[in-house]
Design a protein that fits this description.
Blueprint: H1 2-8, E1 9-22, E2 30-32, E3 38-45, E4 50-57, E5 60-66, E6 74-75, E7 80-85, E8 90-95, H2 99-122, H3 126-146, H4 159-246, H5 253-362
Antiparallel strand pairs: 1-2, 1-3, 1-8, 3-4, 4-5, 6-7, 7-8
């Protein structure tokens, strides 16, 4: 009988929630049907085209509801929803851990309800199946109400809930990876820009240093030449003054004109050299400014290297956490897979019990 039930009814969606039932006396207060969150699953019977919502608490079913097109799932808060089951003469309430789980269950409820409506329109013997289920529901709900306070055993989510959890973990880890990659890429781009700027400054600094050394060497040479020119000028001036003092006893006027011309040329050369010295001194100021910019670029480069080191450390920690999370998820998946087998056996046993109850009622 085990293979028969496995082929007949299959789970199509599972989630975890706290199950409540409306107080039959007041019709206002909620009575907890489970002390802890339990698995709530949608099942589909392909042979009869019937959809059911089943939840097991302990060894008893706390929800055994056949979905009909007239049912409506209503969200009463961000994490709570309810629907009425006229066959069991009760109202079920589900409290979820997150708003996303409530939304997923609501969407699946709408899909199943639409599928049930289509199945009823296509199937001619739908009324017979509904009649049989309505006969079995009162006796079955009475058994359920007697066992609501029984302590529940550990329940786990079905394959679909495992899939949602795995997808959520993958999305979170993927987003964390993308954020770290973005931070590293930004740091790398900034690092490359600073390195390019630093190399440019280094090249300019090398050229300026070479030009400055050359200018310094030229300045020393020009200073020596200038000293020689000044000595020659003073000597020529003394000669001119001496010639003027002795009158006609000196050289001719032609020699005097030549000496005057040589003196003017030396003075013009001296003025040109002074201008060159002034230009070199201004270049030295520019060189000091370039040195300051180079030091600033080196400082910024060191800061970027420190940031990169911090990012590498964070990436290493994130990879370690990611590895640990993946190991925990794999271990949890294996435990869930093992528990799913146990849950399948309990569900099949419950189906056998339901069939035996139906047979007893029919008799």
């Amino acid at each position: 009988m085990f293979p028969h039930h496995r082929e007949r009814e299959q789970p199509i969606f599972s989630t975890r929630a706290h199950v409540f039932q409306i107080d039959p006396t007041t019709k206002r207060n909620w009575i907890p049907a489970s002390k802890h969150a339990v698995t709530v699953s949608f099942f589909f019977d392909a042979n009869r085209s019937v959809y059911r919502i089943i939840s097991v608490g302990g060894t008893k079913a706390i929800i055994n509801c056949t979905v009909t097109p007239s049912m409506t799932f209503t969200k009463t808060s961000q994490k709570f929803g309810q629907w009425a089951d006229s066959r069991a003469n009760t109202v079920y309430g589900l409290g979820f851990a997150t708003e996303q789980q409530l939304h997923q269950f609501s969407e699946k409820f709408k899909e199943v309800k639409d599928a049930a409506r289509l199945a009823r329109e296509k199937s001619q013997d739908k009324e017979l199946v509904n009649s049989a289920l309505s006969i079995a529901a009162p006796q079955f709900s009475q058994d359920l109400s007697d066992d609501l306070q029984s302590p529940p055993v550990m329940c786990v989510n079905g394959p679909e809930d495992k899939l949602f959890r795995s997808q959520s973990a993958d999305i979170t880890l993927a987003s964390e990876k993308e954020r770290i990659k973005k931070m590293l890429s930004e740091g790398s781009i900034c690092d490359m820009n600073l390195e390019a700027e630093f190399f440019t400054l280094q090249d300019s600094n090398t050229k300026l240093v070479a030009a400055l050394h050359e200018a310094n060497a030229n300045v020393e040479q020009w200073k020596k030449q200038l000293g020689a020119y000044q000595e020659e000028t003073e000597r020529l001036r003394e000669q001119v003054a001496d010639l003027e003092a002795h009158g006609g006893h000196g050289p001719s006027d032609l020699l005097k004109d030549e000496l005057t011309q040589s003196l003017e040329e030396l003075e013009a050369l001296l003025k040109a050299k002074d201008e060159e010295i002034h230009i070199l001194q201004s270049k030295r100021a520019e060189y000091h400014e370039m040195e300051h910019e180079r030091d600033e670029a080196i400082r910024r480069l060191r800061e970027v290297e420190m940031r990169n080191s911090e990012l590498e450390r964070r990436v290493h920690n994130t990879e370690t956490n990611l590895s640990n999370s993946l190991e925990d998820r794999d271990r949890l998946d294996s435990e869930i897979q093992r528990a799913v087998g146990i849950l399948d056996i309990k569900i099949f046993d419950l189906n056998d019990l339901r069939q035996n109850l139906v047979k007893l009622i029919d008799k």
